[in-house]
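Escalation from tier 1.

The customer reports that the assembly of two entities below gives different structure tokens on two consecutive runs. Tier 1 could not reproduce it. I'm attaching the input and our single run for tier 2 to review.
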Amino acid sequence: MKTFLAAMRETPLARRASKLLQAARDVLYGATVYEMVRDLRKEKAQREHLFILMVFGDLIGIPILPPYYTLRLLPYAIEGLPGWKRALLRERDITDLCDMEA
Amino acid sequence: MNALLPLLVTIIAIAVGYGWYARTVNRRVIQPDSKKATPATLYMDGVDFTPANRHVLFGYQFKSIAALGPIIGPIVAVQWGWLPALLWVVFGTLLLGWVQDYSSIMLSVREDGQTFGALSFRLISPRARTILVLFIYFYLLLLMAAFGKIVGFDLMTNPAVPLGVLLVIGIGLLAGQMTYKWKLDILLTTLITVALAFVGIWAGTLSGVKSFVQMLGGGAQSPLIFGNVTWAQFLWSLVVLIICYLGAVLPIWRWAQPINYVAFWIVFLGIIAGTLGLLIWHPSIPDSFPAFTNWDGNLTSAAAGAGVTKTFTSLGPLWPILFVTIACGAISGWHSLVSSSGTARQLENESDGLFVGAGAMFLEMFLAVLSILTAVVGIGAVQGFGKYAELIGAGKAGGVFALGLAEMMNHAGIPVAFGVSYGAVFLTLMALTIMYLVVRFMRVASAEFLGDTIPFFRNASFGSIVALVLSAFLIYTGFWARIWVLFGGANQLMASMALLLVSVWLMAKGKSYLWAFIPAIFMFVTTVAALLWTAFAVFRQVANTPNLAVNIMVGNIAAGVIAILLVLAALILVWDGIKALRRLKTGALAEAKA
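Tier 1 run:
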């Protein structure tokens, strides 16, 4: 029976149905939870950006005093630094807010 | 004729529009390259720029663009007859609607994810950006007035509705608490909150509750308190404005987002139940419901045979008024703003743009056709054309939808009494989810422009209150139908400007641009004509209505003046746009000569 079911799942029709089901799930996710996930990401990023600004502000020309902590934190923060610099230096426009995340 | 035929026509239109026209433009003009990095992959920061799966993005785009416009607009436009409304929804989407949504996404994708303010600054002129933002502010003000009036004056004045709306909002807050604070599973949260929302809507229909709500609104015959505003209309509009205020100043995760989440399920399940009911029912379109009424959309003469003797005000000639009345059902400027600022920055692959942008617009066309059917068969087949005319004449387009949807859902086994309340809550939530986010935008826009000169505007509450006071002014004083047309006109004028921007960009890139430029010209001429005609009609109505209260006079004159200012702003933008086009043409000629 198990072999039969496994074989059924491998038929082109079953694969197609499974793809359709996945697409429907994704569409529903996009219309519901996705926005919540985006908002949480934004909130998290804003706080992280603020923290990195305090510690590594000198990377964009803001003088920062405590180099000891900066060096200690550098290995943990290095991955996020390029993204942080881009996000902070990116020119923003008020129409950026039209995706309803004002 | 069977009511399913318009749905079949819609499916054929989608096959032709998406399957042939949109794909051809996509392949020949835009030529998406799957190997090219999109801003989402190039600048991935996990926040604004995040690549997302095409199906996820499709759901996101549809949810962002579908609001009250594609529902109320087509219902109001049926006063010219269901055929002109259906034709504009189908052909408008086929030739203009998807063009705008899709091209806005691709323009932003190809220009490093820049949004319309920055793009108009760069491609058209520096002042274009300032004018565009001012234009958006006043356009959103008209949106607030149009939506606020439907919710506060029409939907919430039904005693079966307010409790349902307030409970769903409360349940939305509970959903936020369960998700973020108690960290419960999202599936469990959804099941509990959606079930509670259904109970809340049902509780609103109980006779004791209705009597209490009616008493709050001043009784069965709510007294007039100023102008022609009753106590119930004043009270519920005020409640709506307070909801918008909270939505604008509270953290998004605390208020707007979880309420939107629960509201989505109410709306989604309503659409499914309505469609299912219509398919089971498959009634004929009643002969008494005219396919075409008259060129002026004059309900007085159209409804004369239906036993209605009341006099209705005609909105105006079929062209240009019907074209803007339908609003988002065919083409909407709001879509271009959402598409360029949100969707374009999440597109993983250039070739996904067509599916996401055009696909979501074609789905919205389906929703618009379904709305036409709520009026034509939901009301028409059960209560006749006279009932439709009466409701529209009383400014109750939302009521038409609620009643029509209830009749459709009834054939899927849902009682009409619950269905009417459900339809009204459905529509109210759809409006509210947009309204408080609009106030958020207006608040930030006023802080940006006036924050330096008047520091008060930097305060979130102050900016929101100013936006709400301006909205309240129009809500309490404007003629609803006129405000709706002005909103539709401003919305589609925004669309024509988006298309103009796309045309300038296409020309700068040496690509074929007529497929965007001709719709831009058509929409520009149509919307300017509609705005000027309606502004004039508003002034005339104010002048010709005897014993009009001062507040109504002032409010309507203000609405008319806003319309004229929007036209002036659009003329400046188009003037600058044409200069940019000329500049580009001269440059291209010089380049060819060299």
